[in-house]
């Protein structure tokens, strides 16, 4: 069973969840099966640097979603290819415990390599998870005008063919 009793765990979690900027925290699991805070920070590129293919890590990051105008919390469960088989076997149990501990996150990314936690990848997954993909009203108006003009042009061509006049 995963030990989540360290006081710095709740403090770091609450900081990321209530922050007014892009903050993050990365955690590891030690040999006694206790969750340990590895690092905290603000830059997404630094968040990516904490992950290593030989480690089992978990991270939470708060990012601004420009599509919705809201901050989103992302939980990253990272199981690198170089992690020992004994730790891989416990991964799902750990991940289950941590989804409860980090209750309230918006998106869960299960990463297998460092490429999965690249800032571009995380931001794209937030956009994909934001819901319906729609265009702005301005784009809709432009498309409507183009469609209307196209229909008028088509009707004019048909009128010319039928009546022989413009």
Give a quick precis of the structure.
The chain has helices spanning 7-18, 44-49, 85-101, 119-129, 137-163; strands at 24-29, 35-41, 56-65, 70-79, 107-111. The protein has 166 residues and is of the alpha+beta class. The radius of gyration is 24 Å and the shape is elongated.
Give a verbal description of the structure:
The protein has helices at 7-18, 44-49, 85-101, 119-129, 137-163, and strands at 24-29, 35-41, 56-65, 70-79, 107-111. The chain is α+β, with helices and mostly antiparallel strands and 166 residues long. It has 2 domains: 7-129, Severin (3-Layer(aba) Sandwich), CATH 3.40.20; 135-166. A 5-stranded mixed beta sheet has the order 2-1-3-4-5, sandwiched between helices. The longest helix is centred in the last third of the chain and has 27 residues, at 137-163. It is elongated, with a radius of gyration of 24 Å. The mean pLDDT is 85.
Search tags:
5 strands; 166 residues; 5 helices; 2 domains; Severin; elongated; alpha+beta
How many distinct helices?
Answer: 5
The CATH superfamily name of the largest domain is Severin
Q: How many beta-strand elements?
A: 5
Strand content: 15-25%
Number of domains as seen in the coordinates: 2
* Proportion in helices: 40-55%
SSE blueprint:
Blueprint lengths: L6 H12 L5 E6 L5 E7 L2 H6 L6 E10 L4 E10 L5 H17 L5 E5 L7 H11 L7 H27 L3
Parallel strand pairs: 4-5
Antiparallel strand pairs: 1-2, 1-3, 3-4
